[in-house]
């Protein structure tokens, strides 16, 4: 290559310098390249892509689309005439003539209303269906044609079509989700009902008359249009659910007047199960099949077998009234190639265009871009080779159709199945239910809250479902790991978003894996007890019981006629403000996640069973006082208070027969692959919302998202100026006898400490309980108990009213009283034995009624004398080793009949070996016979003390005080005045 130059001799120079290499390097390169042989694979691939592009152009030409990128579908949609309704080209004959499919019924000169398409694997059946759907969407507006697609083999044949405005649903992958089959049946039946109801409402016999009147402006009904069911691999559907044949027969029979069309596409013709539907079919499309017999079953002749053995995919026969029309269907899955234009056309489509011209020093005029249309060259696709990343023609068309019809009205038949939705944040259902953002919280929504969605396939709806808690309890049941804890937290979160912390309060027992704790930050939460924290669990229940008993007492005595729950709510929160018996609470919810954990009735843990009984009682008796119970369990029938659960949320049950939702058949089909799935009372499928906001959906896990939501909700109520609900108080680890929180006991009661029921003074009512024995390990607080009793005696009685007898082998009570109260103090076994005999004689002589009294005199006999209190620390030290009976044996008779002797006995005992060392002791037997109370401190829970009362691992001074009248409650023994750790060490 040379260039002309005036700077070199002869005027020529090299324009480029070629690369050179030595001969040996060239030889080495040649040997390296020798392994590669020339091939025509690249040419073949390019040729195939070019052929696909030309095939796609046939579709564009058939529908008058010049450039798919700029195509406006609304132009074609606006030109459809009644005669052209649901009539469209589906392919070309060998001579290039278009072949049309008319889905109208024969009365309207059509081929329908229904038909079949049969083709073996590789015949092009799925591609034919795809082109057919695109053709329908390209020619007809969404209000005129709706399409329901069914891909029953799960091969994604219709992938991408779901975004078309015409497509009202895509049913696929049913083999892995058999419950969708039932859903499909309901959807189709629901559509029949919907269309018939619209026709009946406006008084028309069929959709044709309805649409004609609507187009003429004679009524304002919604457009119905034609519904076209394109069902790929329909025989697979019948194998999975044979009963669908009857449903499809009904749809086919009624579809004629309702404008419902069915295209049944399968690999082979199904003649037996589909007899009813086949009778309604007006056309058949046959592609390549496996045998002549299958061809006859499909199109009535063997031609699909004989003529398509070596035919390319898409080759087909359209058979109407035994007339066979051969054609090749359109191909729309190939790459899109933009058409070539002349300059003037490119100027109009791409902007300013300048052609190539020779560059010289002369002035060249601008080219004329306005030319006659006849001068345009034909688009040339013969040499078009699309790039590797060129989009598919189908995707380009789908995007254009979607953009044009996105806002057009349409009725959606097949809504996305719940398993396709995934987790549903609570703000989604809250905003839909109340029509406001969640942050616009209300102070009182009437105790009605949303918690999920139901899938009402018959009505083609997925409405938000709610639960009304104004006058009922709530139960949540489901198999393990079905989302029961999630359902409870969703209800709680919905309540917190719609009711102020003054309006509702939560007390929780979390035996469901700890997830309830994620809501502890809500200002509505008073306290949540974790599984294993028995003391706090008892405290939660005791606090709720206290609220109920307080309301029972105070509401009955309020004003002249008392006050009921309705009046309480109206005055405190409603439209009739007024005074109420204030207790710091509104409607109270006791939440027990996994109540079955409280039903443990073993020899080792009867405490939980007692708590379960108390929760059951609250569920039965507390609604009239604004206290509700929300519980979850694995089964309904094992919930003792199930009859009191007026509201129920049912997730998937382990045994469908346990379902309470009126449709046990539907219960069998609740999927186990998604938490929160269940049934509503009508048998529709349910998806419970997640208890977190959508903005936190990407958090590490559900608990983290819920905690973040809890914080945001709490901040919102703080911004609105609401104080949090009163927090749950727990028994202190230590409390002194003179603590202001422990007011003096009423007359006849010895103050012991603080009780969990009222979080106030608890004591021994000597009228109901003449004796008490205290059981525990060393350092559990047994001696402190007796010293506190001494202080209570001094507070309640003067020395003239009470005398104390102390049997103190450990010298632990030596400084507990002054001598004005102390009548007897002995420490050695001999002294104890002698004192016991003397006291017994004194009782018999001075404290028994005189002989000879009449019954009337005995009834009136009430001598004035000081009470005798016998304090024994410890009882086991009063029984000599090897002896058969206690040193206190002489007192047994008096202890057993002490109610009229002004005699009270307070005893401490070791818990170890309770049955052998203490329960068999006649002193304990006599005390039990007289109605003694029991205080059980720290100890091995395997030791059963009395009835269902057992020791537990407890801090010093903490114990369960059990009386036969009031049952048990946890207490903290008050430390006597002046008691310190040093004092405790001195008395060990």
From TrEMBL:
<keyword id="KW-0547">Nucleotide-binding</keyword>
<keyword id="KW-0677">Repeat</keyword>
<feature type="domain" description="FtsK">
    <location>
        <begin position="96"/>
        <end position="296"/>
    </location>
</feature>
<feature type="binding site">
    <location>
        <begin position="119"/>
        <end position="126"/>
    </location>
    <ligand>
        <name>ATP</name>
    </ligand>
</feature>
<dbReference type="GO" id="GO:0003677">
    <property type="term" value="F:DNA binding"/>
</dbReference>
<dbReference type="InterPro" id="IPR050206">
    <property type="entry name" value="FtsK/SpoIIIE/SftA"/>
</dbReference>
<dbReference type="GO" id="GO:0005524">
    <property type="term" value="F:ATP binding"/>
</dbReference>
<feature type="compositionally biased region" description="Basic and acidic residues">
    <location>
        <begin position="657"/>
        <end position="667"/>
    </location>
</feature>
<dbReference type="Pfam" id="PF01580">
    <property type="entry name" value="FtsK_SpoIIIE"/>
</dbReference>
<feature type="region of interest" description="Disordered">
    <location>
        <begin position="657"/>
        <end position="676"/>
    </location>
</feature>
<dbReference type="InterPro" id="IPR023837">
    <property type="entry name" value="EccCb-like_Actinobacteria"/>
</dbReference>
<feature type="binding site">
    <location>
        <begin position="478"/>
        <end position="485"/>
    </location>
    <ligand>
        <name>ATP</name>
    </ligand>
</feature>
<dbReference type="InterPro" id="IPR002543">
    <property type="entry name" value="FtsK_dom"/>
</dbReference>
<feature type="domain" description="FtsK">
    <location>
        <begin position="462"/>
        <end position="664"/>
    </location>
</feature>
<dbReference type="InterPro" id="IPR027417">
    <property type="entry name" value="P-loop_NTPase"/>
</dbReference>
<keyword id="KW-0067">ATP-binding</keyword>
<protein>
    <submittedName>
        <fullName>ESX-1 secretion system protein EccCb1</fullName>
    </submittedName>
</protein>
């Amino acid at each position: 290559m040379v260039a002309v130059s005036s700077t070199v001799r002869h005027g020529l120079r090299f324009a480029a310098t070629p690369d050179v290499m030595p001969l040996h390097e060239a030889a080495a390169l040649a040997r390296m390249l020798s392994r590669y042989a020339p091939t025509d694979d690249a040419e073949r691939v390019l040729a195939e892509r070019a052929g696909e592009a030309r095939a796609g152009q046939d579709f564009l030409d058939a529908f008058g689309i010049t450039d798919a990128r700029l195509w406006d579908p609304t132009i074609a949609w606006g030109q459809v005439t009644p005669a052209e309704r649901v009539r469209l080209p589906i392919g070309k004959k060998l001579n290039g003539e278009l072949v049309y499919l008319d889905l109208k019924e024969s009365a309207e000169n059509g081929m329908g209303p229904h038909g079949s398409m049969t083709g073996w694997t590789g015949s092009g059946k799925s591609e034919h269906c795809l082109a057919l759907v695109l053709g329908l969407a390209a020619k007809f507006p969404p209000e005129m044609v709706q399409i329901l697609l069914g891909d029953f083999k799960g091969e994604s044949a219709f992938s991408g079509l779901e975004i078309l405005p015409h497509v009202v649903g895509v049913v696929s992958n049913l083999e892995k989700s058999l419950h969708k089959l039932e859903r499909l049946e309901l959807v189709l039946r629901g559509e029949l009902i919907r269309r018939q109801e619209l026709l009946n409402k406006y008084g028309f016999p069929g959709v044709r008359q309805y649409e004609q009147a609507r187009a003429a402006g004679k009524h304002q009904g919604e457009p119905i249009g034609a519904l076209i069911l394109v069902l790929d691999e329909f025989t697979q559907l019948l194998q999975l659910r044979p009963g669908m044949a009857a449903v499809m027969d009904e749809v086919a029979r009624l579809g004629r007047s309702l404008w419902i069309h069915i295209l049944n596409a399968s690999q082979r013709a199904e003649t037996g199960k589909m007899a009813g539907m086949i009778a309604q079919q007006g056309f058949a499309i046959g592609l390549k099949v496996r045998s002549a017999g299958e061809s006859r079953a499909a199109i009535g002749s063997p031609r699909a077998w004989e003529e398509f053995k070596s035919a390319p995919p898409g080759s087909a026969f359209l058979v109407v009234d035994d007339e066979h029309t051969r054609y090749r269907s359109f191909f729309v899955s190939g790459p899109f190639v933009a058409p070539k234009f002349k300059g003037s056309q490119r100027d109009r489509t791409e902007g300013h265009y300048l052609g190539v011209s020779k560059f010289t020093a002369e002035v060249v005029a601008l080219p004329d871009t306005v030319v006659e249309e006849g001068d345009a060259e034909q688009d040339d696709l013969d040499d078009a080779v699309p790039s590797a990343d060129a989009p598919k023609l189908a995707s380009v068309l789908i995007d254009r159709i979607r953009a044009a019809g996105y806002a057009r009205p349409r009725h959606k038949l097949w809504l996305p199945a719940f398993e396709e939705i995934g987790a549903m944040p609570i703000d989604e259902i809250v905003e839909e239910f109340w029509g406001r953002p969640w942050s616009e919280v209300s102070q009182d929504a009437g105790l009605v809250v949303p918690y999920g969605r139901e899938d009402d396939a018959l009505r083609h709806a997925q409405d938000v479902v709610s639960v009304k808690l104004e006058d009922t309890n709530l139960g949540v049941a489901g198999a393990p790991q079905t989302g029961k804890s999630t359902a409870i937290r969703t209800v709680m979160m919905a309540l917190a978003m719609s009711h102020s912390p003054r309006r509702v309060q939560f007390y929780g027992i979390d035996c469901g894996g700890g997830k309830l704790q994620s809501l502890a930050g809500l200002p509505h939460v008073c306290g949540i007890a974790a599984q294993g924290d028995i003391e706090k669990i008892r405290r939660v229940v005791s606090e709720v019981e206290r609220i109920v008993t307080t309301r029972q007492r105070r509401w009955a005595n309020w004003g002249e006629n008392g006050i009921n729950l309705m009046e309480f709510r109206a005055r405190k929160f409603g439209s009739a403000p007024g005074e109420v018996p204030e207790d710091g609470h509104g409607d109270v919810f006791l939440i027990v996640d996994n109540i079955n954990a409280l039903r443990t009735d073993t020899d080792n843990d009867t405490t939980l069973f007692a708590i379960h009984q108390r929760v059951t009682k609250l569920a039965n008796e507390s609604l009239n006082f604004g206290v509700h119970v929300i519980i979850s369990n694995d089964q309904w029938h094992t919930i003792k208070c199930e009859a009191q659960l007026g509201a129920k949320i049912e997730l998937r049950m382990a045994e469908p027969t346990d379902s309470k939702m009126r449709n046990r058949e539907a219960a069998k089909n609740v999927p186990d692959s998604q938490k929160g799935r269940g049934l509503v009372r009508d048998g529709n499928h349910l998806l419970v919302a997640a208890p977190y906001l959508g903005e936190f959906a990407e958090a590490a896990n559900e608990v983290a998202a819920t905690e973040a939501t809890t914080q945001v909700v709490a901040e919102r109520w703080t911004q609105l100026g609401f104080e949090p609900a009163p927090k749950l108080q727990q028994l202190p680890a230590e409390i002194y006898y003179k603590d202001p929180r422990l007011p003096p006991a009423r007359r006849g009661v010895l103050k012991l400490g603080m009780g969990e029921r009222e979080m106030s003074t608890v004591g021994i009512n000597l009228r109901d309980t003449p004796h008490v024995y205290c059981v525990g390990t060393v350092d559990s607080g047994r001696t402190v108990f007796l010293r506190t009793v001494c202080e209570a005696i001094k507070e309640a009685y003067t020395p003239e009213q009470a005398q104390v007898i102390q049997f103190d082998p450990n010298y632990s009570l030596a400084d507990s009283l002054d001598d004005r109260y102390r009548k007897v103090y002995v420490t050695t076994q001999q002294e104890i034995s002698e004192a016991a005999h003397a006291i017994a004689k004194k009782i018999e002589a001075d404290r028994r009624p005189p002989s000879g009294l009449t019954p009337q005199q005995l009834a009136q006999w009430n001598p004035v004398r000081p009470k005798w209190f016998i304090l024994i620390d410890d009882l086991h030290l009063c029984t000599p080793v090897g002896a058969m009976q206690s040193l206190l044996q002489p007192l047994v008779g008096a202890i057993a009949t002490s109610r009229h002797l002004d005699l009270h006995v307070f005893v401490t005992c070791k818990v170890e070996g309770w049955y052998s060392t203490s329960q068999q002791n006649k002193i304990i037997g006599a005390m039990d016979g007289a109605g003694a109370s029991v205080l059980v401190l720290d100890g091995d829970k395997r030791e059963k003390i009395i009835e269902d009362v057992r020791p537990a691992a407890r801090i010093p001074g903490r114990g369960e005080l059990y009386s036969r009248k009031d049952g048990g409650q946890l207490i903290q023994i008050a430390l006597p005045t002046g008691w310190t750790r040093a004092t405790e060490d001195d008395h060990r």
